[in-house]
Amino acid sequence: MVEESFVALDQYCEYPVEEMLEKAQAFYQEIKRRRSVREFSDRPVDRAVIEQCLLAAGTAPSGANMQPWTFVVVTDPEVKHKIRLAAEEEERKFYSGAASEEWLEALEPLGTDADKPFLDEAPALIVVFRQKWGVAEDGSKVKHYYVHDSVGIATGMLITALHLSGLVTLTHTPSPMGFLGEVLERPGNETATMIVVAGYPKEGVKVPNITKKTLDEIALFV
Predict the structure, then answer these.
(1) For all residues of the chain together, what is the average pLDDT?
(2) Domain 37-201 maps to which CATH number in 3.40.50.300, 3.40.109.10, 2.140.10.10, 3.40.50.720?
(3) What phi, psi does 123 have (nearest 5°)?
(4) What separation in angstroms does the CA of 84 have from each of 89, 119, 174, 183, 217?
(5) pLDDT digits (tens, 9 = 90+) for 39-95
(6) What is the pLDDT of residues 90-140, one digit of tens each?
(7) Could you give phi then psi for residue 119, rounded to 5 degrees?
């Protein structure tokens, strides 16, 4: 390996254990306020805020640093409506027979159905695409590694950044999602993986009364 390929870790900052714990506790208290919202205000979101959140997502680790993601931010009302119509068509198939009874029973407490008005109402739809392979300058394919894992991490960081900036989000995954590539005219090496709906909550909005698992239920120390 060429020595110039590495640089000093100047960005790292170590904290005393007490301060580390304070930071960890503060982050937990903040992030546990995050809730998925299905009713959005039509108030516009400053593009600069979205851009900074996307830059944060782009710092995510990825297999061989290939960064196999594309984020398409949709704010045009006509394009959002096209996405809604196509998504609801797939959702009607899902709720009318494609989904198992077990799956529908699991969704029932969340109050979801085939109608997705938030796709029109929210000011920004961030469609996350995973790049199955890259394209070199000469047009040849570039192999990507751990694509699903990498895009999942980046999406989680995006949702966290949006929350910390003061916006609410919803992760929407209509299945199948092939229509998103068609509507947004994406190349063949990209596959839609999720819509992150982002904006301000509608006044008076309510969310499902749910709880999260305890530490003992989600973690083991060996």
Answers:
(1) 94
(2) 3.40.109.10
(3) -70, -25
(4) 8, 5, 10, 11, 37
(5) 999 999 999 999 999 999 999 999 999 999 999 999 999 999 999 999 999 888 878
(6) 888 878 777 678 877 877 777 778 899 999 999 999 999 999 999 999 989
(7) -70, -25
CB 34 within 8 A of CB 142: no
Assess contact for 91 and 116: CB atoms under 8 A. yes
CB-CB contact of 65 with 56 (8 Å)? no
In contact, 30 and 164? CB cutoff 8 Å: yes
List alpha helices for 38-190, DSSP H: 47-57, 77-93, 101-107, 118-121, 147-164, 178-183
pLDDT digits (tens, 9 = 90+) for 173-216: 988 899 999 999 999 999 999 999 999 999 999 999 989 999 99
Quick one: tokens of 126?
A: 């961030």
Q: Is 101 helix (H, G, I), strand (E, B) or coil?
A: helix
Domain ranges of the chain: 37-201
Is the Cβ–Cβ distance between 11 and 59 less than 8 Å?
no
Please report, for residues 38, 47, 207, the alpha-carbon distance to residue 164 in angstroms, rounded to integers and kept in the order given.
Answer: 18, 16, 19
